[in-house]
């Protein structure tokens, strides 16, 4: 085998075709609402981590659990990258009619791309937070919030941070 590219071979690189059962697929016994997606900064140095918070509200009549998922998308990259990449998730129990604020860390290494070695590149990124993948079609309503941030500075090897 000489072609090791993952394009068209795994769900992360399918292009425009969505997987039949993506990560987080399923139904819930209640409804949730996401709001107040906040990033620690809209501009980061190339080696910096990103702090993220989001509020999850159980708007239904039953206590339930939700798997909150964070995905990262590179808006431009020097090498092929996934459409989006899961960078964090957490299962959270929320009582009916209540809300909780969740905090996450997106590490700089999660933005690294493989270009003969792991590299961090400047550019624009979109972070998604919700109960499913971005653009996923489900029978149960679910929201996905998004926010953009920029990374500045020269590209550098990950081990150089």
From TrEMBL:
Biological processes, Gene Ontology terms: carbohydrate metabolic process
One Pfam family here: Fn3-like
Group of enzyme by EC: hydrolase
TM region(s), chain numbering: none
Gene3D superfamilies, per the entry: Glycoside hydrolase family 3 C-terminal domain, Immunoglobulins
EC number of the protein: 3.2.1.21
Highest taxon of source: Eukaryota
Catalytic activity annotation: Hydrolysis of terminal, non-reducing beta-D-glucosyl residues with release of beta-D-glucose
Molecular functions (GO terms): beta-glucosidase activity
Protein keywords: Hydrolase
Family: Belongs to the glycosyl hydrolase 3 family.
PANTHER family named among the record's database cross-references: BETA-GLUCOSIDASE (PTHR42715)
Protein name: beta-glucosidase
Organism: Mohoua ochrocephala
Originating gene: Bgld
